[in-house]
Predict the 3D structure of the following.
Amino acid sequence: MVRIFPSLAIALFFFSGTLFSNNLSASINTKSISVKGSGSSINTLADCQLSVNAGFDIITCEGTSIQLLAEINGMASSVIWVSLSGKGEFDDPSVLNPIFTPATEDNGSTITLEFTAFDEDSNCQATDLLELSIFRLPEVNAGENIVICEGQLVHLNGLVDEEDYVIEWEGGSGLFANIFSSETTYEPTILDPNPLVLTLTARDPIGTCEAVRSDITITFISSPVVDAGSDTSICGIVSLDLSLINRIPSAENADRYEWTTDGSGFFNDPTLLTPVYTSEISDFGKIITLTVNAFGDNACDEAMDQLELLINDNVFVDAGSNEATFVDQAFNLVNSSIAPKAENMKSVLWTTNGAGTFNDPTQLLPIYTPAESDENKEITLSLTAEGYCETITDEMFLNVESIVLGINPNKVDQKFKVFLDAANNNLVVDFGSTQHKETDWHIFDLSGKIHKRGKFNNGQDRYLIKLDWDTHGVYVFKVDDISRKLLLHN
């Protein structure tokens, strides 16, 4: 490259009267004058036939060594290369075409190299300058490698420290939110390999330098999956081993677990996949929820699932108090002194060892009608309650009395009937046409307490005994030495 100094060129012209146009080079008084303009030196002395050309200005990239290509026209005994502004080095500055290696601090700047040739015989020299522009390569960093849960968006935080370079992400079959930004997101697809390598590339906009690249490796981790198992039920205070239910808990891609409950019970170890849950009394009759969270790699969110646990209370059944009835009188169990009771059951069923029948044996309080063969027997009525976990049976005894209460063993013809006039709350004793003597009567309960007493007069065929106390229950009606049980209702 040649630089022309106008004032000097004029001075030369008036001194010699001749300006050699060949490469704008000339000599004067054996002094060499460097003229910048066409890429060669100018000498104005006719006896100094020497000119040089340092070569074309160069644009290069950081880290590149330059092969210089200078030219000499004429005879030269020696040459020298000098870096006027840079800090790089020549492999040999005394040869025509050395290799120049820029220094690191020269990157991103333009430096000037000077080339001079000497002719000792004619005592003249020629000089030319060359400008070397060095593009600084950007620092490109795609970021730290990423481990991420499959299906999640990949956040990329790359770095390119030179704004003039063209940035572009490469690789993958997914979608970049902005492929020309170092900071962007990438949405993977099922076609992406695992691991996936993405490349951040920075290119010189004029194509002088090769692209600078940096890779990032993305490893996809499978998400945890968990199944809490099948819904189930238990009875009362029970320790439920979740490894024994119909569909046991299972998990994939998980190595840590945490069980919780909205009930009052507790787990023997909530960090196990299949712990044991023990219920509490306050859980009885409720549906509680058991929740399991499964944790895998920290890159993934935990998975959660639930099962419902029905905690049934223990079955309770009570057939009620023992009772009595007459052979021709149906007995309604709702009238028992202690009514039958059943709790926490799915169904009930009455059975008997007697020959009578229930109007509906699946009802808790049915009506039992004795058969003739039940007369003067103590039959068993059994109440069975079927629960969700157990079946329990309880019994009560029903005395089926004859309508004829008794016959005086000393008076075989002494017979009478007793029945209840419920409308008037009277006990009716009917001798009919049967002759009877004057005799005492008593009514007492099963504990022996007398509630009523009186006399039957000789020859009277019917008597009314007022039931003026709480008459509900079983009583004994005794006439002289004859006694029978009565079932009385108020």
In short: Helices lie at 6-16. The chain has five domains: 6-135, 140-221, 225-312, 316-401, 417-488. The chain has a mean pLDDT of 83. The two ends are 136 Å apart (CA to CA).
